[in-house]
Amino acid sequence: MKLPAHIYLDQQNITYEALSFSPDAEKGASNVAHALGFSERQAVKTLIFQVVETGECVLVMLGGDQNAISGNLKKAIGSRNIRMADPDLVKAVTGYITGSIPAFGWQTEGFRTFLEVSLVGEPVLGTGAGQWGEEIMITPENLIKASNAIVVNLTERDKPINKD
Fold this sequence. Notes:
The model has no long low-confidence stretch (mean pLDDT about 95). The protein is globular. It contains five helices and eight strands. It has a single domain, classed as YbaK protein, CATH 3.90.960.10. The chain starts with a helix and ends in a 12-residue tail after the last strand. The strands form two sheets. The protein has a five-stranded mixed β-sheet. The chain has a three-stranded antiparallel β-sheet with strand order 1-7-6. Helix content is about 25%, strand content about 25%.
C-alpha cells in the first residue's frame, strides 16, 4: 500500500522501509516499537505545537521514551508562550489525525520542524506513515533530509539547545 508519505519519499529518492503492524494495537510510540520489535527511543513521536501569539505551528520529533524540557523547547521555537495544538488544528495543519502523523510530505514552505539531537545516533527511526498500522523506518539522516528538520537538544537541561 502506497500512502502519500511513501510517495513523497519515493519522489525525493529517499530510502526507507515500509512496515505494517496490527491497526488494533493500542495507540502510542511504545506500542508501535513493541509491535515491530525496535526500541521505544527509535519510535518517533511527531508532536505539533502552536506559538500562541503568532498562531505558527511547528513539528517536534522526540523518541517514544522522551519528553521535551519546556525551557529547551521554548528556546528552540523562540517563544515562551507555546502549547500543544488541539486535534482539530493538527488535522487542519497536517491533514492527519493525531497518532500517525508522518514527519514529512505535508509541510508548507517555511514550516519549522525540530528533531531531538540524541535521535541522530540511532541506526534507524520509525515514524508514522499517516495511517495507524503503517510505519516508515528511515535513517536519521534521511529523516532530517525528508522533513528539513532543525536538529536541537530538547531533552537535556544542562546542555546547549544547538549543537554548534
